[in-house]
Amino acid sequence: WHLARALPFINDGQIVKWFGTNTDINEQKEMQRQKDEFLGIASHELKTPVTSIKAYAQVLGAMLSQEGEDKKAAMVMKMDAQLNRLTNLIGDLLDVTKINSGKILFNKVWFNLNEVIHDVVLDLQHTANRHILVMDFGETGDIYSDKERIGQVLTNLVTNAIKYSPHANRVIISTRREDDRVTVSVQDFGIGIPEDKKDKVFEQFYRVSGTKQHTFPGLGLGLYISNEIIRREGGRMWVNSIEGKGSTFCFSIPATLKS
Ligand code: ADP
């Protein structure tokens, strides 16, 4: 898009002509707005019934367990696990809507970064089948940030590290503090990312297609959301990767001293 094409033609201070590009941009903006509005309404409408089904599934599971119907209870537990996946997908769609409309809120508090990362990693270790999540922590001290959102970013990175390294059995999560910043990195030994796709993976809905042997499920939103969260926390996110060898996703955020 060429800036000069949209500039008005000035004659004696009068606008005599305004070229078409401006209209195209307005149309694009309107289409984007309608898309965001649809995404917002659809994800909100999906959330309500899913929340309700989940509540019923949990009650049903508990009832079946009490009655000694273990097989049936196990099936309901599987339903519940799938409902969690659905809830997370809907949560991602809602987050994208919030980010795109500038309505994402941050609830900042002081907390010890290593403690929060440790808890999130332990939680994820329960659901990881073959991968061992190795923690390599340097002293981070306290940071002033949104605990939940930082946990969400880490969950996204570790879940991806596991998902995109189906033949590896290790993911390394490291933290470091340098002067006024803390850096967190998540290293995997998986499929890696082709050089020309490295920047694109942070775009919304962008996915590198799977390998011949594997297809990987997903919407292509986790990294977009994570990057936007970190940007809004005053930090930045990047990736080092070698195709076929593995990737290291890192983010750094300011760690201002407590006053
Ligand atoms: P999703 O995993 O749902 O597709 P993400 O936004 O988390 O969405 O990631 C976008 C894309 O970036 C993925 O589809 C995948 O191609 C690539 N990607 C993300 N993390 C990794 C990783 N650890 N290793 C290799 N590729 C990755």
TrEMBL record:
Taxonomic classification: Bacteria, Pseudomonadati, Bacteroidota, Sphingobacteriia, Sphingobacteriales
UniProt domain Histidine kinase: residue ranges: 41-257
Highest taxon of the lineage: Bacteria
Segments forming domain PAC: 1-37
Protein name, entry field: histidine kinase
